[in-house]
Design a protein that fits this description.
By secondary structure, this protein is an alpha+beta fold. The protein is built from five helices and eight strands; from the N terminus they run βααββαββαβαββ. Helix 1 crosses helix 2. Pfam families: Acetyltransf_1 (PF00583). InterPro entries: Acyl_CoA_acyltransferase, GNAT_dom. This is L-amino acid N-acyltransferase YncA.
Length: 169
């Protein structure tokens, strides 16, 4: 059965569902033995801030919120201090906080979110997407590899190194 997918900006009324999705992902990371998202971030305030700033996006499956991500154009100070080198130096879209609800896990929706993210970038005449993840997040590392993201080096967030990737569209 075909799923109807929609990707749209998150609204205030979505925040509690988004927070539940992020809590699912935080628990998954912990159960996988990852240290990513085990330090109180992201949290409900992060979600509310994303929405207020127009950065939060939700993936809906048949009208139900199934995934979340934050998209930020040209603004990630940690990326200025990369230990390595980005592929491009122009405009870019940063992807943060990609998470899928436990109710929809294992259906390939992370890849779908990234496809929609590429559409958002192109609609804004931006042809570079940058993303980072923990060294101990094999699920996201595999997705980035499958989708053609190239490893560029390390960036640092809240005192820990993260693998940084870029895809040129």
């Amino acid at each position: 059965m075909e799923m109807y997918l929609e990707f749209r900006k998150a609204i205030t009324e979505d925040s509690s569902v988004i927070w539940e999705i992020l809590q699912d992902a935080i628990t998954r990371r912990k159960n996988d033995g990852s240290r990513q998202w085990q330090d109180g971030y992201p949290n409900l305030e992060t979600v509310k801030s994303d929405i207020e700033k127009g950065l939060g996006y939700v993936l809906l499956v048949d009208g139900i919120i199934a995934g979340y991500s934050a998209l930020i154009f040209n603004d990630e100070p940690a990326y200025d201090a990369i230990e390595g080198e980005w592929l491009t130096n122009g405009d870019f879209l940063v992807v943060h906080r990609v998470a899928i609800s436990d109710n929809f896990a294992g259906k390939g929706l992370s890849k779908k979110i990234f496809s929609f993210i590429e559409d958002v970038a192109k609609q804004n005449n931006t042809f570079s997407i940058k993303v980072d993840t923990n060294f101990d997040n094999p699920a996201m590392l595999a997705i980035l590899d499958k989708l053609g993201y190239q490893y560029c080096g390390e960036v640092h967030f809240r005192g820990s190194a993260r693998k940084a990737f870029e895809k040129v569209l």
